[in-house]
Amino acid sequence: MAGYRDLKVWRDSMNLSLAIYRLTKGFPDDERFGLVAQLRRAAVSVPSNLAEGHGRGTPKEMARFAAVAKGSLCELETQLLLAAELGMADRESIDRLLEKADEVSRMLAGLIRSTSR
Q: Residue 86 gets which letter from DSSP?
């Protein structure tokens, strides 16, 4: 397996994390330790778990950590929907991020399938 930085799913999840950081800069200050922190933590967890799984050196561990990353991605999607309902960001921006998250989710599913064999 190539290095984790060569994985498209890792690069795309890093880009998603960066987009979450940019989005949350505009959230209310009183959410800094609430939803902002939760969104950022969930977003960063996705590429971090991919890197850790790769670093463990076995396909089984890669699959396990990719599954954890997928769980974090589901958290992120839920938090984005909540942010939209609370009016913290425009729906168009949220929808774009949800589309990116869906793409990452499909890639994670493929990675889990390919490393679980």
A: T
Q: Cα–chain-centroid distance for residue 69?
A: 7
The DSSP output letter for 90 is: -
Cα angle 51, 54, 56; round to 5: 110
Beta strands in 7-68 (DSSP E): none
- AA identity, residue 79: Q
Average pLDDT over residues 64-80: 98
Element (H, E) at 27: none
How large is the average pLDDT for residues 46-54? 98
Determine how many CB atoms are found less than 10 A away from the CB of residue 30: 9
Taking a C-beta distance cutoff of 8 angstroms, is the pair 97, 19 a contact? yes
> Is 70 exceeded by the pLDDT of residue 1?
no
Cβ–Cβ contacts within 10 Å for residue 96, how many? 13
pLDDT of 35 reads 97
- Strand, coil or helix: what is 16? helix
Q: Where are the alpha helices (DSSP H) in the chain?
A: 8-24, 35-56, 59-85, 91-115
